[in-house]
Protein 1
Amino acid sequence: MTDLYHHPLCPHSRFIRLILGEMGIEPDLVEERVFDRRRDFLIMNPAGTTPVLVEEPVGAVPGPGPISEYLDETRGPALGDRRLMPDDAAGRVEVRRLLDWWNGKFFAEVSSHLITEKVYKRFMTADQGGGAPDMDAVRVARANIRYHMRYIGFLIRGRNWLAGDRLTYADLAAAAHLSAIDFLGDVPWAEDETAKSWYVRVKSRPSFRALLADRVPGIVPSPVYADLDF
């Protein structure tokens, strides 16, 4: 049994869900509101962040980096040429560089602000920091996302996928973050047509279907969110 503690719009959780989908693993999803600081969840991950994968015999595996490494070590070799990590050292370095870009830099500059301000704060109490969104933070994130879109376009104009010739963890991480923001209608798709075309390819994969069915109470997804040809 594979359990995944997640939030539907947590981009790091979406990254792991896409990996699991590509590996043909259907986890039992457990929605976790990290701002509630639930004791049992903090025992699994003292950092108090999603996602956390729980699987016997290893137990709790917290965080997108450790989870993706664990899944690659335990399931990756069986995927053959569909493995999401390249065989060569230089290719693995590039994938890891881009994972740090999306799960670190992009999260800090864009997705963390938008998801916190426009989603999490809706469900947080005043004591937890909830309330109206900080529109200055939202505006900064909306400005920052534009050069990230251009960077995707730059990479794809010289490659088939973000890190090279085949789909890797780098594509799934980038698409996971963009999908959460696209739910909110904050991705400037007109910024770079090459980046948009790349996202359409990832979005059309079977592993993406569960994400496109996600819904959050009180928030209507953008009109193009589930559209495969937008």
Protein 2
Amino acid sequence: MLTVDDARDRAADLVARARAAGADAADVVYAASGSTAVQVRLGALEDVERSEGQEIGLRAFVGQRSASVSGSDMSPAALATLADRCVAMARLAPEDPYAGFAPDDMLAKAAVPNLDIDDGGEVSPEELREAALIAEEAGRAIGGVTNSQGASGSGGRSVTALATSHGFAAAYSGSSHGVSAQMLAGDGASMQRDYHYSSTRYRADLDDPATIGAEAGRRAVARLNPERLKSGPMTVIFDPRVSASLIGHLASAINGASVARGTTFLKDALGTRVFSKGITIVDDPLRRRGLRSRPYDAEGLPTRVTKLIEDGMLTGWIADSAAARQLGIAPTGHATRGVSGPPGAGLSNVHLEPGDVTPEALMADIADGFYVTELIGQGINGLTGDYSRGASGFAIRGGQICGPVAEVTIAGTLQAMFAALIPANDLVFDHAVNAPTVRIDGMTLAGA
């Protein structure tokens, strides 16, 4: 893996090679990573995996024609061949009136901000094994746990660089760490599974492995002997483990490419009230130690904190330069990209701001409801907003969480769900996308 400075220089060098090969413009993405993962089960080491790799991707323009080529050979001869091939392909590509770079005057000019996303440390397989063993032992110690699907520990680092022919060149590094456990409770056909995990940039920020394992065990035991609720209209409470998925559906619906194609149910919603008054959803790529923090986007634009939803109102789209040109707007600094192909648009660290009431108060008046802890399947129609997903969790009766529930489906439309959403006050920043417990009235449940 190259250093940050070397990665930036390698990307800039390939840009120069593409220009020398005849490209009118070019940009390059370099990505490298190295990670170690250890898996244990029933107190024994099951797997140790070490992966390392680096790739470089070139996008070359000849007029309004463009092509992308990627490779993993960083030798000068291989890069020269890659540049020649990419330019030759671009000459044969169809013209795209929307393709091109972000405007020069919008590029990030300041030094790359330090977002504190790299702890710089190396984690040994022995340390990862110890963390995984502690997690599994704690999970198996929970009364009612009958088996284990294992526990794992992981750690890694990555380096990313971007260079363009119109003057941008920068790179940054990041680290990642994780501990997880999956426990089983019960026997035979009545067996239930659940999990818990922690992922952070700094190893020192990880939750205690014993806490992770014990929580996985408690969750598995709590799911024993589930019932099936009767079909009908239902108030649904989404646990924070699953409420964040609703933000993911919003992100897809406000993607500029989808808006330009007219393939999103929110295509006509700009500047209108999509959520109820008081709801705010924030994208924060500059969060210190955030799992998706980034100092600039995949086109070299500076990133910034954005309120996607403010007081219930949809404030704008997220768009890379190509989609922005189609929509007649400026690119929003949300471009994302791998080493192959052109940029798209995506969010970073996103959260739904908390409400004013506790989860207990949020469900206190629910006579019969459903508390969702797991969602199954991908039954989302992005064009119409129709929502239908398998779910499991717990019954709510008399304002209290009761016995476990499985094999049901919850359905509605995202338009109605967004408008009815009420957040609790228990927001915790422990993932890339975070939301508190939320309540949604008026959903339909299909069960027994």
Protein 3
Amino acid sequence: MTHPQPVPPARGRWRLPVAALVAGLVVGGGAVGLVWLGSAAGSPDVETACAIVGRTTRLDPEADYAQYRRWAAAAELAAVAAEQDPRRQALADALRRPIEIVQATFRADGPEFDAAMTRARGACADI
């Protein structure tokens, strides 16, 4: 009785899947790198902070505490962006200043406050 001889594995067949895997990793890594580089120009934190600023109509904690807290969140997002990119520091400072005035004076009006709000909205408009 003869036993069938085992068929030796084909050589070279592993090269195609390995080459495809390596090419996929290189292309995927390149795509992620390009997205990362592109996001440095338009930080999601900055975009979100300025979107919040655009939706906030007043910064008076006595009249509407939710809007005051929203602005504070925008200022924190801008501070996060400034930690990652020092070019964002002016925006972070501009968004924080109206909050500092309210905390110091317990008022959300007056020339100093109005000027700070104008600077903050202008800083977002410049982005």
